[in-house]
Fold this sequence. Notes:
Elements: E1 3-9, E2 12-16, H1 22-35, E3 39-43, H2 50-61, E4 69-71, H3 76-85, E5 89-95, H4 98-109, E6 114-118, E7 124-127, H5 133-145, E8 157-161, H6 165-176, H7 197-213, E9 216-219, E10 238-241, H8 248-251, E11 258-264, H9 267-275, E12 282-286, H10 290-295, E13 304-307, E14 326-327, H11 332-338, E15 340-346
Parallel strand pairs: 2-3, 2-5, 3-4, 5-6, 7-8, 7-12, 8-11, 10-11, 12-13
Antiparallel strand pairs: 1-15, 6-14, 9-10
Amino acid sequence: MPSVAGEQTTGVVTCIVPWNSPMLLTTMKLAAALAAGNTVVIKPSEFASASLIAFAALFEKAGFPPGVVNVVTGYGNEVGEVLTTHPLVRRIAFTGGDAGGRAVATAAAQSFKRISLELGGKSPNIVFADANQNAAVKGVVSGIFAATGQTCMAGSRLLVHASIHDEFVRKLIDFVSSARLGDPTDGATNIGPVSNRPQLDRVMRYIDIALNEGAKCVTGGRRGSGPACGEGLFVEPTIFTGVKNTMRIAREEVFGPVLTVIPFETDDEAVAIANDTPYGLAAALWTTSIERAIKLPKRLEAGTVWVNAYRVVSYRGPSGGVKGSGIGRENGIEAIKEYLELRSVFINGNPDVPNPFVMG
């Protein structure tokens, strides 16, 4: 009996996106879901809904049939709960924090909805003794201070070989000290404000936690001030040394411009520290050793690993996490498969044998 395999659309997809990078995170989900033939309901954060409402209006202008792309606003405990439990929703794509991810997974499990979760990270940025230090300094700064540290893939743990630790930290402080805080729409600004008051309070609380744990703040650690900051929600780019990987500041996601520095002696120790985290979203290593560049990414528990780079993304390259950083992948052909159901079809060409049993 011949058999064929086919794929069918999942159905109605709910996309839940956070307040950081709402357009980017939505389009990553939307492109794959629409390419697979599904209809989509987008639920943006209550802190960042306007851009997605304007974005959704463009689909009508582009000629999409009504109801293919929809935006529903509101609070997570109201709208989000309905969109994750509604019987017509077959697939949920969520980006956000751990607590929200667990709530979505629990709700989806009640009716066995398919899910993908892109959650938090405590990503290691590993600098070896043979690295190009000037390039690594720029990569570390980009990894943690871009978007004011408010990205899931932020390189919030800096692992530096002990032999270059002090020198590298000095270079890092010198570079960061030149950063300009201010209006993010001003081209001269390097670091903008934290997105909302609850997040500001969270960042400042973690700075206090780090100090109480015994970490040493070598730069930053305060609210941003000065004419460019005004009364805005600014936090100075902050770096802690003397950090142990067991400290809360090294294990819990701050989601702000706060970097912890941890020394290591050997490659094995660097890998052990890097993997000693509940998360597994991203990692990077800086080295001029080809052998290390080829071998170490295979040992790092992360969905994305960069070598001599950070925060490089491509619509062709699948992205996502392992462990507490999530389930599933976005971007690339793998993402489209996430929004399809595989179906096997068996065709009986002999009506005289109604139920043939064929193996192989």
